[in-house]
Amino acid sequence: MKRFLPVFIALVFSTGSAEAIELPGLPKFIDDMVAKYQFKHDELATVFQAAEYRPDVIAAITAPATLKPWVEYRASFINPLRIDGGLEFWQHYADYLQKAEAQYGVPQEIIVAVIGVETLYGRRPGRYRTLDALTTLAFDYPRRADFFRSELEQYLLLAREQGFDLLGIKASYAGALGIPQFMPSTYRKYAVDFNGNGKVDILQEPEDAIGSVANYLKQYGWKTGEPIAQLAALGKEATPEISDTSRTEGEWASLGITPAVKSAGKLPPAWLLDFTVENGKEYWLVYNNFRVITLYNNSNFYAMSVFQLAEALRNAHVSKP
Question: In a designed cystine with 285, which of 47, 104, 257, 270 is the match (CB 3.0 to 4.6 A)?
């Protein structure tokens, strides 16, 4: 608590404070933080007086990138910029990526791909002040207000723990932080000090970001050595069924659906997904580890982009002289 006060004093601005403090529900939120976590009322009020309401945050969250067709979405992430950048990142942090794979069982190329899709390897961590984004969403986005109020609460707790300058930390429009784009609650729960320097910093330290991504995926059920996704082949009488029901390899085969490339071993249960491409539809069998990636970002487009970028990175890394 003592670390929090100097930060607050530094945040008093005579200009730039907007209408955030007047958002319905914010005064009660401040009272709740005081009662639950022993924050000082005047200090929180000072911070929120400096917070700005951001209508562009509402616009951004109501028109996410996943509304794009798959072909356009994929092209945003599977491209030379992210492949070349990923190879450079992989080479620079090879020791930490090897350590993360050994400790958590998550392949190095998946860790690199997640960071590549999220922030272009830390180059694009976000342009919104975290406090502004979370305050706007917590009190002017009814569909997910409870979630964002919880994340705003977690951000204040995180700031107290880390000694953050509350108005100096940038994030995505949704309030996701740092190189791996962790929400504040995820930062507090899953971020790790992977370089052993005594602090957990996924804002500035790629080593911590690498370990934190691997830890997150492992904690959410990543199964080492299991497949992620495979292109499916459909027989003439195939009956593709897109649903939330997984089936065994034999059950899919009975429907005329098999992996396009036969596996040497027994495959775990899979779900079937379809993606519209230039010449029709592709069907993919996806497994538990694919579902784990969707827990990082709840989108099949996102998970497939991570998988395909990881495959491109792995192939390029293996072939690199």
Answer: 270
Q: Summarize the confidence of residues 121-134 as an average pLDDT.
A: 97
Nearest-angstrom CA–CA distance, 201 and 206: 9
> Quick one: DSSP state of residue 201?
-
Give the pLDDT mean for 49-66. Answer: 88
Q: Which runs of E-coded beta strand occur in 175-270?
A: 229-234, 257-259
Catalytic annotation present for 226? no
Report yes or no: 131 and 184 within 8 Å, Cβ to Cβ: no
Mutual angle of helices 108-119 and 300-319, in 10-degree steps: 120
Contact 117, 302 (CB under 8 A): yes
Contacts of 158 (CB under 8 A, 6+ apart): 164, 184, 187, 188
Strands 170-171 and 128-129: antiparallel
Query: Which residue is it, tokens 């300058």?
Result: 165
- The residues, ordered by sequence, that sit 6+ positions from 74 with a Cβ below 8 Å of its Cβ are 301, 304, 305, 308
Q: What is the pTM of this model?
A: 0.92
- Quick check: 275 and 281 in contact, CB under 8 A? yes
Contact 212, 96 (CB under 8 A): no
Selected catalytic residue, list 43, 101, 109, 118: 118
Taken in order 26, 28, 33, 38, the sign of the CA dihedral is positive
Q: To the nearest 10°, the Cα dihedral for 224, 276, 279, 248? A: 40
Query: What single-letter DSSP state applies at residue 267?
Result: P
The residue behind tokens 């342009």 is 127
Q: Which domains does the chain have, with CATH numbers?
A: 4-61+125-218 (1.10.8.350)
Q: Which structure tokens are listed for 109? A: 């190329």
Rounded average pLDDT over 98-123: 98
The DSSP secondary-structure symbol of 257 reads E
Alpha-carbon span 173 to 151, nearest angstrom: 13
Give the lowest-confidence range in 35-39, 52-56, 216-220, 317-321. Answer: 317-321
